[in-house]
Structures are given as structure tokens and as C-alpha cells.
Amino acid sequence: MQQYLIHAYDYTDAQALERRMAVRPAHFELMKQLKASDNFILGGAILDDEGKMIGSNAIFQFESREALDAYLAKEPYILGKVWEKIEISPFKVANV
Q1: pLDDT digits (tens, 9 = 90+) for 42-60
Q2: Sign of CA dihedral 47, 49, 54, 57
């Protein structure tokens, strides 16, 4: 399995946090499914200095980049216009 690190930064408009909260249950449900299939390794919210969610970091593993792209095509935070900028890097979790 290939591993990927995703840095996703939220839109910064006044409704960005509201959109995030609206689709958060669907996002969590998808993460539970991906965790059960061993595709989701670890993830969480990026916070600003006041503790407000402004993005996400996650580590995934998939058989191919195409499989990762298939997940991204149905990610609620993308479809719901929560994540504005997404950076994807190949990654290797340390085996310690």
C-alpha cells in the first residue's frame, strides 16, 4: 500500500466554519469506513491560535494514487466546499 500525507486548508470566508460543521458528520462517517478498510491511518483538524479549525491533516494508505483520487472525489469536505487548498505528498509512516 502506498501512503499519503494530506494537508488541506479550509476556505477563509465568513461561512467556512459553518460549512465545515454542516458536513462534518458525513466526513466522520467516511473516515470510519476508511479506518475499517485500513485506508485511514491518522488525521485531525489544524487549529489557529484561538483553537478554531482551519484545515485538516491526515495520513492515508491506498493501493494506488487512483484509489486515493477515488476517495477524494467523494470526500464531503471537498464536495461541501470546506477544503480550498489540498497538498498531497507521498509518505512513509515510521515503523518504530
Answers
A1: 999 999 999 999 999 999 9
A2: negative
